[in-house]
Amino acid sequence: MRRTRRKLLLMVVVPVLLLGGCGLKSGSPMVDEVSPGSVGQGEPLKGATLTVTSKNFSENIILGQMTGLVLKAAGAEVLDRTNLPGSISAREAIINGDADVQWDYTGTGWITFLGHAEPIVDPKKQYEAVRDEDKGNGVIWLPPAPLDNTYALAISKKNNAKYQLKTLSDVAALAKKDPGAVTICVENEFASRDDGLPGMEKKYGMKIPAGNIQKMDAGIIYTQVSESTSCLLGEVYTTDGRIKAMNLDLLEDDKHFFPNYNASPVVHEATFEKYPVIAELLDPLARKLTTEVAQTLNAKVDVDGEDPHEVAQEWLVEEGFIEEG
């Protein structure tokens, strides 16, 4: 999920510093020549300078690039500050006003940022709870996309021919019957988060020996699960394009442990008060972004090696949201 790309490196090598309406901003100017399509008519953001940020995995970078292109088509000068490391960096940039817009996930907001132990099963109610509570932090959550990038465990079809696992309850039963068989590859963050491995083990009554847990970068997990015998199971994301490409089976979260992670545009409060039209510009995108669409777009980057900026622009043009030139 994390590739290094020419466009993203450029913003590190050649930073610019500007004073904007929300404080000190750093980023690389988005120089694409784009114009309104079905969104941005009349260029309602003409004269605005806005900074877009994102986390450092492909899907979130793509969403950040989409946002920048739409805001630019609507007349804004856009600074590209995408590809920040981890969940906290982009979040802090929004809270502090160092960035204006990003996409975040309702489950991350509810569990990680707001500190709740239990997810809300209904996705609409979870979004509303995050929206209402996080407003107190100066963060505006716009209506989410159907896209649900939640956690899952995956196993290769080859290995699953032996174990016939279908659910996480099946994994718990196997861990109890044969603890040595359940080896798992996870990211560092997943290994310690309440909505990650520790919480999952508690919910399903399983205990995976520490020696059976390997921590590694997300991209390596897919390869290890697909091609090696070191990890029977791997932490994956439901919108990842590599699931199909690498012949992996997703295991059903039959006890509904993992939160809904619907992607939602998130805006710095002062920015939203000044430019409320941002909601109108991004809502049509959100409505179109399903889990299946995300899988397709993510595969273009993570399987085919395409540039996330180009993937984002191509999709926006195909959908008629913006026009080139």
Quick recap of the structure?
This protein has 325 residues and is α+β, with helices and mostly antiparallel strands. The protein has helices spanning 6-13, 58-73, 86-96, 106-113, 123-134, 157-163, 168-177, 188-192, 197-204, 218-227, 242-245, 269-274, 277-288, 291-302, 308-318; strands at residues 16-20, 23-29, 34-36, 49-53, 77-81, 101-105, 139-141, 151-156, 184-186, 213-215, 233-237, 248-250, 263-268, 322-324.
Describe the structure.
Helix content is 43%, strand content 19%. It contains 15 helices and 14 strands. The chain has helices at 6-13, 58-73, 86-96, 106-113, 123-134, 157-163, 168-177, 188-192, 197-204, 218-227, 242-245, 269-274, 277-288, 291-302, 308-318; strands at residues 16-20, 23-29, 34-36, 49-53, 77-81, 101-105, 139-141, 151-156, 184-186, 213-215, 233-237, 248-250, 263-268, 322-324. Strand 1 and strand 2 form a beta hairpin. The protein is globular, with a radius of gyration of 20 Å. The two termini are 30 Å apart.
